[in-house]
Every structure is written in structure tokens, then in C-alpha cells.
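Bench log. Compound arrived from synthesis this morning; before running ITC I wanted a structural hypothesis for how adenosine-5'-triphosphate sits in the protein. Inputs:
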Amino acid sequence: MNVLASLRTALRALRKNKLRSLLAMLGIVIAVGAVVATVSIGQGAQAKVAAQMESLGSNLLMVLPGSVAMHGVATGSGATQTLNRDDAAAIEKELTNSVAAVAPINRTGAQIVYGDQNWFTQVQGTTAAYLQVRGWPLAQGEAFGREEDAAAAKVCILGKTVADKLFVPGAPVVGEQIRVKHVPCKVIGVLASKGQSSWGQDQDDVVLVPWSMAVRRLIGTQSDAVGQLMISARSPQMVDDAEREITALLKQRHHLSEQADPDFQIRNLAEMQDAAKQNTQTIAVLLGSVALISLVVGAIGIANVMLVSVTERTREIGIRMAVGARGRDVLFQFLTEAVVLASVGGVIGLLIGIVTSKWMAIKFEWPTLLSPPVMLGTMLLAGFAGIVAGFYPALRASRLDPIDALRFE
Amino acid sequence: MDRSSNGNAPVVQTRELEKIYKMGDVEVRALRGVSLSIGGGEFVAVMGASGSGKSTFMNLIGCLDRPTRGSYLLNGEDVGRLSRDQLARVRGRQIGFVFQGFNLLPRTTAIENVELPMLYQGIPARERHQRSSEALARVGLGDRLDHTPAQLSGGQQQRVAIARALVNRPTLLLADEPTGNLDSRTSVEVMGIFQELNDQGLTVLLVTHEADISDHARRVVTFKDGLVLSDSRVERRRIAREELLEEATA
Ligand SMILES: Nc1ncnc2c1ncn2[C@@H]1O[C@H](COP(=O)(O)OP(=O)(O)OP(=O)(O)O)[C@@H](O)[C@H]1O
Ligand SMILES: [Mg+2]
């Protein structure tokens, strides 16, 4: 019996028992649908996190004041003042091999006013290096330079969200005077949009001002203490070198021995990325195993129905054998039925999975990523499940004795 | 070479055929040594009381079952040595089997039922279709190709079964009480088909309880308790075609 003939025979047999066939494949439908949908959600999330990490800037290192030990005590990083502008300048000047740019950052919340519009946002005092470190281009205007920093010049760069809140669309922004915490300030640039961070914060809701302007005029202190340093290494491979060298240099500057605990912390983006990746991978593995289990359950469903079917059709098997069917013909027939059940269930499940994935993407603005290899792999797995599930029942059918099968009531 | 009663080379040749069914400790000796030779083109009726071993014998001849002892040559070939698959091949190619209970696949059209034996001989779809419509036409069902067994009368179902038995052009047609479920007129019609096939050279072996039916054969073998009791020619053979004609004119 050739493949085409047995396929037709299988389809006919399955059609004769529509409801049972449908119930038999239900497990596989759900399993494949679940695999396709959940993996697409998992991969979408993974891709989103990766993209957001990327948007933080490449090769990023963050240096925070205060030691890990000190953080255990409720000092709060704002209270510790172990990093200052001179540290930043020293890193920039002495570690030119590994470090590309160093941006000191001090933050404060402030009310921004333009005309009758006002908006509360975060003001970051920093230097032009910040844009380089974050890999953040300007949409309009230009950045401030060393002179503005030295003079604590009353200039600012607006994030996209802030510009949208204060100005009507299309109105000139650069060159306008706004007030930041009552300090009149000239807008010299607008940042390109960067969107949400991985923890859901709007990164465009920000105003950048020269570091000295923020510290002296807005925060109002003569201290040189820095809230944090954002540093970019020259290349991804240099991140570890940069981290080691910065640690050594800062310890030396802070008169700490090599063995002593540092009074600062360095975090690098690669570590954070790894952590995030691991999280999403754990979720993916979890979803995947649930899906695999449901596939096994689906296969058991098919095996169960096939066993019942073989018993019920013992007489049919006897008739087929009486007219010349060999054991392998009968085996092949029932195996084909099982594989057809699993494959049809797989295709239906695939469609349901795709629809679910797209629906989630639209309804919950959840990024989903349908990957062809995963879909193909799941389908193959479903077909394989059919073979495994159908094998034992088919073998039983093929081993029946013709005369016993014919006599079966 | 052994000659059978009509002088042709034997199609079926059994020697001391025995079949013992074991049911736990109890042994049922269904056949106790049957030696029989049936030549090509013969039409043999097997008779005997219920339980005398007729069906057991037919199943052995049809290669559906294996004997406990004894030998069976089909067209000169020792069937006892064949494997399961080889037996299936013999059933498919050399033997056509007609059962009392028809044994058609339910919810399957007449033509699909008739195509079934060809499916396992690798015959292409077009030829399958053509040969099965021809076989059905031959048994007078050319206009019932797409009827399922449930949509056919008992006589029509038995004709579908006969068409199925013929479609692979076997050398031996076996029928175990083919008229057992049919009324007398339909029985005569079915016997008419068998006689026609036999006239064309097909060897026919059938089991029946009724003398009316066995009179259509050329030779009658009677079984008793698993042995051949008698083996004789039919003296006044009935011809189904004439009976039907008579009935029509009466
Ligand atoms: N599968 C079986 N298992 C056990 N005993 C069997 C089996 N088949 C038949 N027999 C026994 O073998 C003997 C012969 O049975 P068989 O069916 O050949 O009789 P038969 O001549 O065809 O009878 P009938 O005219 O009633 O059909 C009987 O005693 C029966 O009980
Ligand atoms: Mg019987």
C-alpha cells in the first residue's frame, strides 16, 4: 500500500469519526498553540529587554559613591559624598587607554515653566560627555561645552517629553527662555527620543543642564561631590579593564589600600544585561517546559483514542487482513492516522498560537516575536508525538491474528 | 502428480489436516485428519452437521489460520512453510473469500469495498476504480457503486462481497455459508453467480447446510466430527439460471 493510498484511507477513517478525531487532537492543538504563543511572548520580551539595554548606551559603567557595606546601613547614596569632580577629571585624564568618556551626574527634581505651561521633571546636571556615554543624539540645537560648565551658564537641553509638554507642536524651542526652579534658562537643544527604559520609566522626561549650573544654582551647594559617574569604555572588550583601572585609580586617590573595601561601587551594563537575559531565559524555559508537558499530554490523548479505535475496529482489521493486508500495511495505516491527527492538530494549534500572539501584541501592547524555526520545530515535534503515540496501538493492530480479528464481536 | 476428481491439476490438496483448539485444559479437535484434493475448475460443496469442522477447514484453506498438523498445498505450493506476510500475499492474490456475514467495511461505499484487495497489491488508483466497477457490474450492481452496506439489501451486500472476492482474479473462491443470511430466491441468484464464475473456469468451494444449495455444485463433500464422511458427485445438478427463468414464467 503506498503512502498516498494510506493517507486517503486514514483521512477517510478520521472523517467517519469527526467528533472523536477532534477530541483526540485537542490536546495537541492546545499544546502547539501554547508553545507558539508563549515562546513568541518570551522571545518578544527578551528582544525588548535587549533593545532597552542597548538604548542605555554601549560599554556603560556606572560608579556610585558609598560602599556596598555602607548601603546596608541606611545612609542613602545621596548622603555619601565619596566621589567628586576631581575623581571624574582624573579618570578622564589618566585612563585614556580604556575609558572613552566620563560624565558626572547630579540630579534634582524641578518645576519647569514656559509661558503659562509648567511641568515637574528631573533635572540632570552633567557635561557634554553624557550624550556620548549614553549614545544619545540631539534632535535640535547643540550641547553645552566646557565654558558653560565652568561658568555655570543658564542653558539647558530638553528631553522630548518636556519639550512636548511646554511647547505647542511646531513652535520654535531652541533659543527660548524657560525657568527651571525660578532660574531663567535658555534652551539650546532638544534630545532625540529614547522611549521607555526597561523598568518602564520615560527616559525623555528629563532636562539636562551644565553640572555646575545644577549643583551651584539649583541644588545650591559649593560641594564638589558627584551623585554618580557614567563612564563608557572604549570597547565592549575594554569594559573589564576599565572597571579594574577605575577601581585602582579611585582607591589610590581615596587613600585606600588595595585590600580595603572601596568607598564606591562600580556596576557595568554587561552584568545587568546578563541578569536580565537570565531572567527572560528562565521564563522561556519555564514556559517551554509547561508547553512540552502539554504536548506529552496531547500525545497521550492521541494514544488513548487510537487504542480505543483499534479495539473498536478489530473486525475491520480482520477484513483487511483477509483480503491481503500484511501486518505492516495495518501498522502503517494506524500510524498514518495518528500522524495525521497530530499534524492536523499541530496546524490548527499553530494558527491559534499565531492569532493569540498577534492579539496579545495588539491588545496589551506586548511585544511578541514569532520565530519560524520555533514554529517549524513545534510542528515537527507534534508530528513526532503522533508517531510515538500511534506506534503502540498500531503495533497491536498489526499483530492481530486474521481469524481472531474476523471473529471479534 | 496427484489427480483430482475432474482430472485437472489440483488447486487444493490437503493431507491429514488436523486442527486442535486449546481452551485452557480442554482440547477441541475440530479437524482430525482431512485429506482432500480439489482440481482446477471444480465446484465443491462442503456439508455436515453444525460443529463438524466445515468453517475450520475453510479458514485453513483460505490461509486465515494454520493447521495443527498435516499439510496443505495450494496450487502445488506448501502453504505451511509460508510466513505471515507471505500468507497475506496468498490471501490477496490467489484466494477470494465470501463470508456468511458479508464482512463489508461499514460506512464505506460498495466500490471502495471492492477496491480494498487491490489496495494491498499496489494497483494504481485508476485501474483499481476501473476493475472494481467492472466487478460490480458483473454481479449486477453497476448502478450501486456509491451505496454503503447500510443502503443495500442482504443479497446486494453479498454480491458486493463476491465482487470484492473476484477483483484480484483469484484461482480459488471460498464461500462459508454465503446464502446463510439470504432468502431462497436471493440464494439462488447468488448460486447463479457462482455457477457462472465456475463455468468460466474458477474453482469454487462453498459450505452450506442446505441440500437445495449444494445441488448447485458438481461435487459434495460431507464432514462429520472433523473427518470426511462422504465425497460424491451431484447427480441431478441444479442450474440457477433455469430455476430463475422457471420462476419468472410461472
Ligand atoms: N476459535 C475456536 N476456539 C475453540 N474452539 C473452536 C473455535 N472455532 C471452532 N471451534 C470448535 O471447533 C469445532 C468445529 O467448529 P466449526 O466452526 O468448524 O464448525 P462448523 O462445521 O463450521 O459448524 P457450523 O455449521 O455451525 O458453522 C466446534 O466444536 C467448535 O466449537
Ligand atoms: Mg461454520
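What the model suggests: Chain A has two domains: 3-52+275-407, 83-262. Chain A touches chain B at residues 1-2, 5, 9, 12, 16, 315-316, 318-329, 401-403, 406 (CB under 8 Å).
ITC booked for Thursday regardless.
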